[in-house]
Amino acid sequence: MIKREAGRAFWKTIYDELKRRIETGVYTTDTPLIATRLAQEFDTTRITVNKALAALRREGVIETEVGVGSRIVARPPDAD
């Protein structure tokens, strides 16, 4: 479980954790990001999780489909 930081909105902490999991490969394009499940995992409300997911969506990291949930957008490998 992640810790709440005093003076920091909890959705930002969740955002950081989700982004870390995506960047390190813990979550892949096959991993569904379902707000209700994440809310249970982080012991918070869906509203808080949805704020974190919205930030990831604005960055183009995830896409959300109503009734299905969110998924990670496939990104091409970095060209060297």
Walk me through the structure.
By secondary structure, this protein is mainly alpha-helical. The chain has a single domain, classed as Arc Repressor Mutant, subunit A. 44% of the residues lie in helices and 10% in strands. The protein has 3 helices and 2 strands. A two-stranded antiparallel sheet has the order 1-2. Helix 1 (10-23) packs across helix 3 and helix 2 packs across helix 3 (46-58). The longest helix is centred in the N-terminal third of the chain and has 14 residues, at 10-23. It is globular and about 35 Å long. The model has no long low-confidence stretch (mean pLDDT 91).
- Highest-level CATH class: Mainly Alpha
Could you give the count of β-strands? 2
Helix content: 40-55%
Number of H- or I-type helical stretches? 3
Q: CATH homologous superfamily - what is it?
A: Winged helix-like DNA-binding domain superfamily/Winged helix DNA-binding domain
The helix/strand order is HHHEE
Q: Report strand %.
A: 5-15%
Rounded mean pLDDT is: 91
Tell me the major beta sheet.
2 strands, antiparallel
Q: Which segments are poorly predicted (pLDDT under 50) over 5 or more consecutive residues?
A: none
Coarse morphology: globular
Write out the strand line-up for the largest beta sheet, numbering strands in chain order: 1-2
Number of domains: 1
